[in-house]
Amino acid sequence: QMQVVESGGGLVQPGGSLRLSCAASGSIFSIYDMGWYRQAPGKQREKVASITSDESTDYADSVKGRFTISRDNAKNSVFLQMNSLKPEDTAVYYCYAEIMAVSSDFGEYWGQGTQVTVSS
């Protein structure tokens, strides 16, 4: 049973910061890419940031210089540090992880989502 669980969302004023966390659990052999997507009402889901197993990172243009993705392989976790938040960052943020199970099955697993609201 693989699970991916996010936490850390909430309310923040423009210019503020939040740190999102995501932990995978289950019969994990290896985790490859991990990352974050977000979806706001009326908008398509967009890729925010990703990080490979060797810690190569990629960011959406809209968050470059403000967000930082990192991972802790010992904890099967990925994080998203969000600084200088803007109202347009308001969305549900979803974590994903590409996981090779002990059984040798490979799959992409998603968290349940965590709400981030940036407002005065």
Radius of gyration: 14 Å
Outline: elongated
Structural class: mainly beta
User: Beta fraction of the residues?
Assistant: over 45%
Order of helices and strands: EEEEEEEEEEE
Helix content: under 10%
Number of helices: 0
Largest sheet: 7 strands, mixed
Low-confidence stretches: none
Beta strands, count: 11
Average residue pLDDT? 97
**Separation, N- and C-terminal Cα atoms:** 40 Å
Which helices and strands occur, and which strands form pairs?
Layout: E1 3-7, E2 10-12, E3 18-25, E4 28-39, E5 46-51, E6 57-59, E7 67-72, E8 77-82, E9 91-101, E10 106-110, E11 114-118
Parallel strand pairs: 2-11
Antiparallel strand pairs: 1-3, 3-8, 4-5, 4-9, 5-6, 7-8, 9-10, 9-11
What are its keywords?
mainly beta; 120 residues; elongated; four-stranded antiparallel β-sheet; seven-stranded mixed β-sheet
Short description:
The protein is mostly beta strands and 120 residues long.
Description:
The chain is mostly beta strands and 120 residues long. It is 0% helix and 58% strand. It contains no helices and eleven strands. Strands 2, 4, 5, 6, 9, 10 and 11 form a seven-stranded mixed sheet that branches. Strands 1-3-8-7 form a four-stranded antiparallel sheet, with no helix packed on it. A hairpin with a 4-residue loop joins strand 9 and strand 10. The protein is elongated.
